[in-house]
Design brief:
The chain is an all-alpha fold. The protein has helices at about 1-30, 35-60, 70-90, 95-115, 125-160, 165-170, 175-205, 215-235, 245-265. The longest helix has about 35 residues, at about 125-160.
Length: about 270
């Protein structure tokens, strides 16, 4: 099985690059020639990637979360998977290149540097921990996609304000649709972060006797969850919309990145077991 895993690992960047190429070509041309085939490309890439993650889990007897480069390949999958869900829900297919390129970056880094670890801490063999981590990554992927649409919203907003009606104006969806996409992506992120927090509250105290709910990573995740919860509630109630909601999404993403960076490299956490 190991040669198969290594072969798939080498092929995955090419799958993502091919998928990006067809999305990007369709974005440039502005037609509907590849409208269905590009979604099929993305679906096949996700199936291929899921098979890879499954085979790694079986072969090494632990979920692919034991080192940063395993997490990178899961993150690449999570970002494209979140976008795929978003595309199915909205049937808006013109923004794929801006999302898939993020998966390409993470997957290339993972392919180059991933290690095959057979001896890991026993806690890392838990499938429930795998669900906890993967749901967190999908949650942060939703937040990332929401922020990307927020940035695209601001770019288009400035293009319209400056009366520039070029490729960006012609190809991107309207401001209203970009706001909607950012909102739905934020909902996906919020739902999966909620799952992450619930699993953490129930299971992590059993797995880590030294756990403290004052742990910096837990606090950071909870703050991001609260911020997005406030934003989503105000959006649903009709109190916030447009640029205000978009800026909140970008601030939430920045907070998530800052929290993750600080807790991983500066603060001591029981999460630091990779």
């Amino acid at each position: 099985m190991l040669p198969t895993i290594h072969t798939i690992n080498l092929l995955l960047p090419f799958f993502y690059i091919s998928t990006f190429a067809i999305y990007f070509y369709d974005f440039q041309q502005g037609g509907k020639k590849f409208e269905n085939s590009k979604r099929l490309f993305l679906f096949l890439t996700l199936i291929f990637h899921f098979l890879y993650l499954l085979l790694r889990t079986i072969e090494f007897n632990h979920p692919p979360i034991t080192n940063v480069f395993e997490i990178f390949t899961v993150l690449a999958f999570a970002i494209s998977f979140s976008y795929f869900i978003l595309e199915l829900v909205t049937d808006i297919r013109g923004t794929g290149p801006f999302i898939i390129i993020i998966s390409i970056i993470f997957q290339i880094i993972s392919t180059l540097f991933i290690q095959d670890l057979t001896e890991v801490k026993e806690v890392l063999r838990s499938n429930l921990l795998g669900i906890h981590v993967i749901s967190a990554l999908i949650g942060y992927s939703g937040i990332t996609i929401s922020a990307v649409y927020g940035v695209l919203y601001l770019i288009l907003y400035n293009e319209i304000k400056l009366n520039k009606f070029g490729l960006i104006f012609n190809r991107l969806p309207s401001l209203e649709i970009l706001e909607r996409l950012s909102f739905i992506a934020a909902i996906i992120g919020f739902i999966f972060l909620t799952i992450t927090i619930i699993i953490g509250i129930i299971w992590l105290p059993q797995a880590f006797p030294n756990i403290t709910f004052a742990d910096p990573k837990l606090i950071g995740t909870f703050l991001v969850w609260i911020l997005y919860g406030i934003g989503l509630i105000n959006k649903i109630l009709g109190k916030w919309r447009g640029k205000k909601l978009i800026i909140l999404s970008i601030i939430g993403f920045s907070l998530a990145i800052l929290s993750t960076t600080l807790t991983n490299f500066l603060a001591k956490s029981f999460h630091s077991f990779y």
